[in-house]
Structures are given as structure tokens and as C-alpha cells.
Amino acid sequence: MSERVVNLTTVKELEQASAQSIDRPVFIYKHSSVCSISSGTYQIFHEMADMQNLPSNPFFTQIMVIENREISDEAETRLGVRHESPQVLLLAEGKVIWHTSHFNITAEALRAACEQVSP
Questions:
Q1: Which domain holds residue 11?
Q2: Is pLDDT above 80 for 18?
Q3: Domain count, the chain
Q4: pTM of the entire structure?
Q5: DSSP-derived secondary structure for 97-114
Q6: Residues near 49 by beta carbon (within 8 Å), at least 6 away in sequence
Q7: DSSP reduced 3-state for 32
Q8: What's the CATH code of the domain at 38?
Q9: In sequence order, what are the residues at sequence separation of 6 or more whose Cβ sits closer than 8 angstroms to the Cβ of residue 116?
Q10: In sequence order, what are the residues at sequence separation of 6 or more whose Cβ sits closer than 8 angstroms to the Cβ of residue 109?
Q11: For the chain, N or C: smaller number of CB within 10 Å?
């Protein structure tokens, strides 16, 4: 697991991540520990977090949906994107500007999303 990925376990941490997206893009990865697809996308997401010089210098966060169902549900409500897992959301200026799920979570897709918000 990448040390650059921050676990979101409280509503306050979710709010802080959203607020941080004003200054730099924020990825939120929703991971299910009981889903076989999640195990592969977890590795992809964490490898991306460890990459240097990604366009737009995103901040990487994750929600462990089984262990933190309340936060996962709150993210769905606040961000307006129906929950799936695995799922990746990209926030900029407090709003979701891109999201994908399941087998669409690839290194190429994450990099392209970063480029979407590059200055």
C-alpha cells in the first residue's frame, strides 16, 4: 500500500478532501475488501499514487467501503455519484469532474483524468 494514499474514515476527513480540491485535484478511491475486481484496481491506484510528476499533482485518498460504510454513503450523497466499488472519483474545486468504476480503472484512465485538470 502506498503511504501517499490517505484513508478517509470520518465525515470531517471527507469534507477536508473536498476542500483541498480547491487547490489541487483529489482522487477518491472506493475499495471493497470482498470484491475480486477491487484487489486489482487497488494495486493500480496505489501504484499511481507513488508515481512522480503526474499531471496536476493530485492528492490520493481512499474509502474502505465495508469498514467505513457511513463515509462511503456520505460521499455518494454529497458528491452526487451513485456508489459502485471499486470506483474512482476525481474532484476539482469541490465537485466531481470525472469518475469511473470496475474494469475501467486503469493507469491510463487515471493519467488521462489528471491531464484533464492540468493547467
A1: 5-116
A2: yes
A3: 1
A4: 0.95
A5: EEEEEGGG--HHHHHHHH
A6: 2, 4, 5, 27, 60
A7: coil
A8: 3.40.30.10
A9: 90, 97, 98
A10: 100
A11: C
The confidence score (pLDDT) of residue 54 equals: 87
* Amino acid at residue number 27: F
All three cell numbers of 41, joined, read: 484496481
pLDDT at 118 over 70: no
- HSE of 13 in the Cβ direction (CA atoms, 13 Å)? 15
Q: Which residue do the cell numbers 467501503 mark?
A: 65
Q: pLDDT-based confidence at 116, cuts 50/70/90?
A: confident
> Distance (Å, rounded) from C-alpha 89 to C-alpha 82?
11
Structure-block grid coordinates of residue 84: 459502485
CA angle 100, 102, 108 (to 5 degrees): 60
CA dihedral 81, 2, 20, 94 (to 10 degrees): -10
